[in-house]
Design goal:
The chain has one domain: Aconitase, domain 4 (Alpha-Beta Barrel), CATH 3.20.19. The chain has about 170 residues and is α/β, with parallel strands linked by helices. The protein is built from eight helices and seven strands; from the N terminus they run βαααβαβαβαβββαα. Strand 6 and strand 7 form a beta hairpin.
């Protein structure tokens, strides 16, 4: 799984509104405990060739209500396993948002970034300053941080890692 760094760089893959968890990870794979199998099927419901195009650290940019539908932690986890650096969206379905934080998938809400970033553009995200930068246009977009505790969980790599860290385990 990718580690969380203050500065993330990758290409943007743009999708629309109301991307449901079945599109993120088809339901036929959710019972799999094989991380390699899960990551091979991300976004398959929208683009069967997506996994062939995306690289470690790339980003998904989407519209409203990303992750709507069934509350399946596997959808968020599969994105993280596949190396998605972050998901930038106008909004997230509440269950997906919490699942993403719990598995350490970086999620960012930014209407302006979603309006301006185009498919395939290189972007940089400064997690410490909460700024998304479009390398092609030179534009930058600030975004609100998650609530403090959720930000800490996400930065730790997810809920399990955050608990270990808070207990002083795994140093």
């Amino acid at each position: 799984m990718p580690t969380h760094l203050p500065l993330l760089k990758g290409r943007a893959f743009v999708f629309g509104d109301h991307i449901d968890t079945d599109k993120i990870l088809p339901v036929r794979y959710i019972a799999s405990l094989n991380v390699d199998e899960l990551k091979e099927h991300i976004m398959e419901g929208l683009d069967p060739t997506f996994r062939l195009k995306v690289a470690q650290g790339d980003f998904i940019v989407a519209g409203r209500n990303f992750g709507v539908g069934a509350s399946r932690e596997q959808a968020a986890a599969a994105l993280r396993y596949a190396g998605i650096g972050a998901v930038i969206a106008r909004s997230f379905a509440p269950a997906f948002k919490r699942n993403a934080v719990n598995v350490g998938l970086v999620i960012i809400q930014s209407d302006k970034a979603v309006d301006r970033i185009k498919d395939g553009e290189s972007i940089t995200i400064d997690l410490d300053r909460h700024i998304i930068s479009d390398q092609k246009t030179g534009e930058s977009f600030s975004y609100p941080a998650l609530p403090k505790e959720l930000e800490q969980i996400s930065r730790a790599g997810g809920l399990v890692e955050w608990v270990k860290k808070s207990r002083g385990e795994g140093k």
